[in-house]
Amino acid sequence: MAGKPSRAECCGPVDGAALDSAALDEPLLNIPDSEGFLRQAMDILVEEAVKKATDAREKVCEWRPPEELKELLDLELRDGGEDESRILQRCRDAVRFSVKTTHPRFFNQQFAGMEPYSLVAGCIVEALKPSVYTYEVGPVFTLVEDAVLRKMMELVGWEEGDGIFNAGGSMSNMYAVNLARFHHCPDIKELGLAAAPQLVLFTSQECHYSISKAAALLGIGTNNVSVVPSDERGKMIPSALEELIQKAKGRGAVPFMVNATAGTTVLGAFDPLEDIADICEQHSLWLHVDACWGGAALMSKKHKHLLKGINRANSVSWNPHKMLMVCLQCSAFLVRDRTGLLQRCHSAQASYLFQQDKFYDVGFDTGDKSLQCSRKPDAFKFWLLWKAVGTRQLEQRVDRALAMARYLAEEIQRRDGFRLLMDPEYTNVCFWYFPPSLRNVDEGPELWSKMHTVAPVIKERMMKEGSMMMGYQPHKGRVNFFRMIIISPQTSRRDMDFVLDQIHHLGKDL
């Protein structure tokens, strides 16, 4: 770095001094002078955030408690800028102390694994800084989004439809609730809540919490979210749904929507969509399918039966950043309607963006049907990946993940001290580990009280050792159990064996 100007020198005055007129003739930020920094930063990205972070011999995380990490990172923001060498070290530190979700032994979330084509697409997006509200400012990415949405709708089983990529699965589910309400009570957009009766929506007890959040945010009220019981597998019970709809009508409330889940967060359960669709048609209710997690099974000829009936839904949410490994975030909201309902529901007709007398087809200006204004072209990350590997390899990735879950479940049943919560339907593998000290204890409150403490202790040791990462939770009266999520095609049966060996290693003395 000797003789190289500091960032402050490259970028001009940073001390708050007034700029004279001559200073305005030169750029404050000289991009060519930053080329060396960019190249070195990209080297760090490749070596530290790609190569090392995906190496099973490396740690999933280098754990530090918050106060210690604050000191290590030197988080304070100051008046003057730091020199280039120090900024590059900041980049290394950010990678070093972050959780490596691309590591083959990261099983904690419903996203994981390194996807190089999606990563490159994300870098292109960040470099160009586009937004996809109008064709004029994002011509390539507007067309890409349209193409990806059409292909996803084809997989759902619709011949036509509408949709939009947005800021996450929770946002997709909020789109669904808002659109269903507008479809039922179109006057509410202009007249507000006073124009609506007491609306009630129905969802299973296993649904994602974003449904209740949407009800709260939109003024429907969480008390008007009717929770439908699920069976022992975590699936919505259709007869219970029918009963709750009738009860709501009987007390003068107005049912308007059912949210079904294809791939629940904890158990990975798929609601019986055909039966639910029958009930929705009978009562003229909007059917939304939250397939954020399970939608990837539509890519697989072998497993798409899990979503049988999804073609009858009015709307679907699907996150390619989950099982299909697109870089975060990449979330699609799909609507079977092709009459412009999405546009009518959200349009504000901002004249400075959506002029109707433009020189091109303004049908490609999609921003007015979005809840957001600025919106990243997340579909490009999915499109480039799909172009690179093709539909067949995406199908193979899904099939491999489910096969790996099957292998792990069989190993759990084979090994002493491990017990499945239930046979997995998807790639959520839920199980208990019984330390040797508890294996001969009679089942009862005393045993399960002690078992409740086992998973949290093993998780703490796991995090501090950095060997792997997975989640745990209690559920419907069951004490804490491990929830293993399998996604990445980097994983092998050796990794599944390692997980069980490591849990025993970390918990055998408890």
Question: How does this model look, in words?
Answer:
A 7-stranded mixed beta sheet has the order 2-8-7-6-5-3-4, with helices on both faces. The chain has a 5-stranded mixed beta sheet with strand order 1-11-12-10-9. The chain starts with 6 loop residues before the first helix and ends with a helix. It is of the alpha/beta class. The protein is built from 16 helices and 12 strands. It folds into 2 domains: 246 residues, Type I PLP-dependent aspartate aminotransferase-like (Major domain) (Aspartate Aminotransferase, domain 2, 3-Layer(aba) Sandwich), CATH 3.40.640; 120 residues, Aspartate Aminotransferase, domain 1, CATH 3.90.1150.170. It is globular.
What is this structure, in a nutshell?
This protein is of the alpha/beta class and 510 residues long.
**Low-confidence regions:** 12-16
Considering DSSP H and I runs of 4 or more, what fraction of the residues is helical? 25-40%
Structural class: alpha/beta
Q: CATH superfamily name of the largest domain?
A: Type I PLP-dependent aspartate aminotransferase-like (Major domain)
Mean pLDDT: 94
Per DSSP E runs of 2 or more residues, the count of β-strands stands at 12
Strand order of the largest sheet: 2-8-7-6-5-3-4
How many individual domains? 2
CATH class assignment of the largest domain: Alpha Beta
Query: What shape does the CA trace take?
Result: globular
Main sheet attributes: strand count, strand direction, barrel closure = 7 strands, mixed
Continuous helix count = 16
Q: Please identify, by name, the CATH architecture of the largest domain.
A: 3-Layer(aba) Sandwich
CATH topology name of the largest domain: Aspartate Aminotransferase, domain 2
The ordered H/E elements are HHHHEHHEHHEHEHEHEEEHHEEHHEEH
Q: What fraction strand?
A: 5-15%
Q: N- to C-terminal separation?
A: 52 Å
Alpha-carbon Rg, integer: 26 Å
